[in-house]
Design brief:
By secondary structure, the protein is an alpha+beta fold. It contains five helices and five strands, in the order H-E-E-H-H-H-E-E-E-H. The chain is globular.
Amino acid sequence: MVKTLTLLLPALFPSWRFFDVIAPSPRVQFALLYSDKEVANEWQEFRPRPAHLSLLQMSGRMAWNPCWNESLFLVSCAERLLQNPTQHSEDEILNRIVIGLIGDTSGADLPDATHLQFRLVLVQRVEAAITEEIVFYSRIQALPTHGAAWN
């Protein structure tokens, strides 16, 4: 019984040494473009956190929340991209954004857009001010053809 308790305690009370570094978490923002030569001006946060969750919603998310799990995966890819840039991490983020946009039927700009780009932004508090630092721009990726993907 004591052996079981010693194995369970670290899971219930994790050590602060669990994290190598405590740093701002990168946010993924994307822009829809109409050519591969266009410079993005309007950026949107991909999967922004909800401003408010009810107690019932929070309880439900404790048991089932695949969207949040995927968002955590994107943050992990973004952190890897900042520490050790690889084509794989950039491709994963681009693919997840495309999949998210295809599933989002509310986007009025989607049918005309032909390309996509994302950037990583570090948001942190410096004294009383909130600062944003753009730390990475992805390549511009062509979106799937209109008829095959958007419908």
